[in-house]
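Progress report, Aim 2. The chain analyzed during this reporting quarter is listed below.
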Amino acid sequence: MRIRVLSFVFALLVSAIALAQPGVPKFTPELKEAVIKDVNEIVSQTAFVPGVDFSKWPEFIKGEQAGLDKAASHRDLIVAVNTALTKFGISHIVLSSPEMAMARSQRKFVGLGIQIEIEPEEKGIRVVNVYPGSGAAEAGLQPGDLIFENNGKPVKVQPDLAGVEGEEANIKLHREGKIMSFKIVRRPFSNVRPETISWPTPDTARIQIPTFDLSYDNERVDKLMDEASKAKNLILDLRANGGGAVMNMVHLLNHLVPAQTPIGSFIGRSAVNNYVKETGEKPDNLAKIATWNAKPLKTQKVKGLEPYKGNIAVLIDGGSGSASEITAAALQEVRGASVVGQKSAGAVLVSVIRPISNGYTLQYPITDFVTPNGVRLEGNGVVPLLETKTNFKFGEKDEAIEKAVLLLNRIALKSNGGG
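Predicted structure tokens for the chain:
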């Protein structure tokens, strides 16, 4: 599961970005050698996850030697290196090309401007989101559309939609039983999706947090939570939220749980080494190490801020990763929130994104994480109380929201003395 999630994110990044951008260094054998040297050093000496043997890296990278020898572009190099990195079977370890690194920092990509889900049984790719200002938005694509053809060829996987800036895509899709055609020119677009609020019922607010990464807007979230404070019920929608910065996650949780509430523990190399040295026990019980270390991450006290007191449901799916999983687990364990949807990604390691040679960056893990109840989320994910379908076709109702509303109404009824 972890490898599948990592590979999917990686493929999404590669195909979303044009293969040539201003300021990207020319690919040379010397560049390739320098990048591989940096990766070897960091993975062998700096990366850390309890129980993971990073000394196996020379073996893993040697297994991709044929791909490395043939690599003649930035894309070829990251494919070969990341294929080797996935053999660790963990999340948050990935090499990014100069194009990918620039796109993340600038929050701009080149492509059609859609977020997708693969639906093999439907023989196509489902549009989940259309980014404002993109070619897809201008052409009129909508969430729920099922793309089945691009430039006369079947569309089954993400690379079937890949292309470079300025290239036209002739798209055919299914919408409400009809076949429709669109012409879309690939161009730069912003992948920033603002946080939003909606009201499924007069008593229930739904706040959607698309990411905890660079585009997370503290002030906007403050305003949305202030608006939602009058609601009896709150649905926190973290579907397709791949995570981001810990400080942004804590900012949101400050609105939802009391100050100084433990929301989990990070377990790094020093904590593990000290535990083994002082107790003589094996480093295989992360919950025990977290209790022994006794330095949990806590929410902060913010002057004038009163945490939300109503009933909470959290929506997650397989695209909910990292900080969004920590958030869902914390609310589940310390606030009794109901989690609805699909099991989360199980990709919960604290990582560093470090610039290396020639504009590349390497993301690698440095600590693991356990919930307040001692549950390790990496590789396990958050399991919903109520499992529902989280993707829906054009025109269909959102089953996850409907089920969350029913669940919250039932909880509210019981709390008021009802049956």
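The longest strand covers residues 361-370. Residues 123 and 392 are 15 Å apart (CA to CA). These observations will guide the mutagenesis work planned for the next reporting period.
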